[in-house]
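TASK: fixed-backbone design
INPUT:
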């Protein structure tokens, strides 16, 4: 950990056009975990969350419900705040972009950027995606019309606009990424951003005249028909929340130790935001950490499918801390995650019930039976130094993992002492120690278990604050910076205590507790049983298994057919020119003419095997193959469910 005493942690501010779902809960729970961790370890922490309330999208949603945007924003913003309060999210401030102090700060930023020559007025003409609140150059659109991010149709907008000189910051941004290897996490995302910036930055339109619902320009600009672009407005929340442009009271928390975001909004945070900060002369954030996307049972969540996971329902049914643990343990940070009740139940029954809960039950049972509940640490070092040292060693490995966002690894590592404890019971068998009259050793073993549980609970408390408080109560200590200092840093042991019996923390869950959505019912997946022999080298239909590495040797890409012709004299072949996001189109000779005409194929998106050795078919060079499936009813091409940018990798 660096020597920064003050730590500032943020979530994105959530749009108020929808109510909170599991994706929002995920970002917030990670941020809450980091904030709790940093408080636990004695750092002066400020944790910010809030709502993003301006823009055309919100204006539309409000009008559709016959409400003013402000009424609508008030209503939805409150649902987010209530949910976080229900979830005991430890935020220090909940900001709303409709707060007067925030608007003041955004105006101050605009004036500063204008004053230093970074803003100029011009005319904007281009394709705008209302859903993503983003302009896209034509070259990035799918089929010249659709948004490359969400797939919805874009609208052409031509209006007078103020521009921010983003292009001016290209080199400084690249230098910043270069000098700060860990600024964008996970590192794989860093390369994406660098490539994008190297591709060239164009100046950014930062005001709109086509709607009203936004922060006005500062009065002295005398240009009342403009409102600020929502992303300028929204990003500024990270400093206005600390008083920027107003009382500046909390600005000593700046800059952010980490901005937690989802991967879909990385570009705004890793490119626009630092460029704005450079223009304002403010420090840049230390980390921008982008997590992956959550799906449900392998499917994208959407209202129309009725499969959106409501975080409150899940937490109510399965327990808030269990839900938190599942989300953070199940998915490596940055990767996509799938929510299924089965996976959640497995985590609860196995990691939490078997490994953690049972250990406490065993301790309560043993100390009750042999020592009237008394637990002493006095002889732990004498008999079980090896186990104690191992535990401390595992706990010492945790620190670097947390702010590098390897939270699933943090939890994995934290489970190792639990297995040290469970193994010690099996190995030393307290019931035999008692039979052999080795009471001191048996008591020391209980002491070992209690101390491992206590230490693990302290380090687990940022992830599972409620459950670990219960464990600590049962072990007669409190989790706070003092106990962290004493038991983790200084490796102290618990004082003698009498254990409190508590009901099992993780009663076994036998079946799903939430009604399953239609999609899940239809599938009726039978849980797979482990096969008797796992020595098989082929799948059921005799195809050889391959490793994931072998699979990734195949380059599969999305492409769009930009020209389609028949191959003269061939009944089967079409000659296609496919744009797979490279400089030159690929020519593909495809045996699909019995099912698709050249006309059908034009402008169709396809999946292309892009690293096949070129081959000649009927005298034409074929530089790829299309994915298709054929059964008795004919052949169907495999195509993406929603339009995707040409060149997107499949895998
Ligand atoms: N208002 C902007 C953020 C402005 S920050 C200055 C915004 N809001 S959002 O409500 O659409 O999304 C907020 C966060 O929720 C994003 O980080 C996004 O990645 C996350 N998620 C929304 N749906 C998600 C999933 N299905 N899975 C995981 N996270 C996703 O963007």
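OUTPUT:
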């Amino acid at each position: 950990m660096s020597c920064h005493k003050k730590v500032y942690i943020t979530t994105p501010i959530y749009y108020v056009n929808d109510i909170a779902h599991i994706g929002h809960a995920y970002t917030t729970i990670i941020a809450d975990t980091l904030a709790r961790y940093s408080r636990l370890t004695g750092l002066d922490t400020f944790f910010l969350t809030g709502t993003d309330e301006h823009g055309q999208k919100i204006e539309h949603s409000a009008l559709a419900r016959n409400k003013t945007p402000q009424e609508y924003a008030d209503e939805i913003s409150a649902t987010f705040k209530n949910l976080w309060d229900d979830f005991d999210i430890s935020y220090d401030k909940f900001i709303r972009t409709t707060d007067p102090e925030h608007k003041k700060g955004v105006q101050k930023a605009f004036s500063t950027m204008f004053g230093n020559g970074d803003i100029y007025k011009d005319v904007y003409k281009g394709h705008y995606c209302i859903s993503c609140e983003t302009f896209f150059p034509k070259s990035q659109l799918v089929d010249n019309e659709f948004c490359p991010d969400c797939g919805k149709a874009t609208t052409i907008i031509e209006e007078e606009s103020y521009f921010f000189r983003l292009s001016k910051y290209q080199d400084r941004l690249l230098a910043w990424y270069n000098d700060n290897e860990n600024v964008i996490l996970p590192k794989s995302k860093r390369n994406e951003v660098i490539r994008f910036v190297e591709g060239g930055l164009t100046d950014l339109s930062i005001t709109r005249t086509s709607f009203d619902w936004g922060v006005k320009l500062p009065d002295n600009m005398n240009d009342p028909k403009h409102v600020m672009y929502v992303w300028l407005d929204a990003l500024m929340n990270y400093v206005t929340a600390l008083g920027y442009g107003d009382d500046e009271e909390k600005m000593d928390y700046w800059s952010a130790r980490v901005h937690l975001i989802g991967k879909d909004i990385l570009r705004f945070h890793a490119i626009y935001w630092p460029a704005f900060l450079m223009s304002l002369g403010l420090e840049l954030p230390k980390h921008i950490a982008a997590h992956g996307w959550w799906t449900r049972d392998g499917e994208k969540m959407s209202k129309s499918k009725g499969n959106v996971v409501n975080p409150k329902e899940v937490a109510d049914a399965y327990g808030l801390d269990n839900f938190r643990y599942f989300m953070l343990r199940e998915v490596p940070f940055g990767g996509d995650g799938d929510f299924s009740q089965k996976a959640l139940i497995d985590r609860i029954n196995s990691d939490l019930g078997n490994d953690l809960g049972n250990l406490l039950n065993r301790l309560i049972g043993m100390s009750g039976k042999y020592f009237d509940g008394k637990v002493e640490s006095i002889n732990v070092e004498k008999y079980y130094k090896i186990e104690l040292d191992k535990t401390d060693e595992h706990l010492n490995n945790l620190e670097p993992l947390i702010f590098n966002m390897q939270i699933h690894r943090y939890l994995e590592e934290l489970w190792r002492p639990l297995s040290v404890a469970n193994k010690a019971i099996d190995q030393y068998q307290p019931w035999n120690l008692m039979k052999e009259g080795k009471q001191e050793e048996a008591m020391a073993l209980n002491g070992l278990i209690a101390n491992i549980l206590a230490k693990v609970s302290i380090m687990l408390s940022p992830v599972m604050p409620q459950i670990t408080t219960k464990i600590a109560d049962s072990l007669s200590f409190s989790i706070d910076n003092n106990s962290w200092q004493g038991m983790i840093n200084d490796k102290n042991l618990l004082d003698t205590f009498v254990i409190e019996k508590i009901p099992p923390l993780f009663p076994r869950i036998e079946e799903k507790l939430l009604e399953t959505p239609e999609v899940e019912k239809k599938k009726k997946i039978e849980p797979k049983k482990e096969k008797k022999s796992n020595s098989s080298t082929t799948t059921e239909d005799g195809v050889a298994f391959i490793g994931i590495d072998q699979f990734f040797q195949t380059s599969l890409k999305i492409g769009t057919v930009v020209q389609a012709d028949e191959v003269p004299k061939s009944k089967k072949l079409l000659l296609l020119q496919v744009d797979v996001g490279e400089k030159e189109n690929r020519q593909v000779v495809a045996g699909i003419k019995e099912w698709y005409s050249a006309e059908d194929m034009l402008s169709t998106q396809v999946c292309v095997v892009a690293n096949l050795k070129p081959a000649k078919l009927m005298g034409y060079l074929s530089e790829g193959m299309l994915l298709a499936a054929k059964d008795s009813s004919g052949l169907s091409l495999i195509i993406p469910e929603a339009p995707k940018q040409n060149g997107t990798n499949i895998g």
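COMMENT: The CA atoms of residues 144 and 595 lie 26 Å apart.
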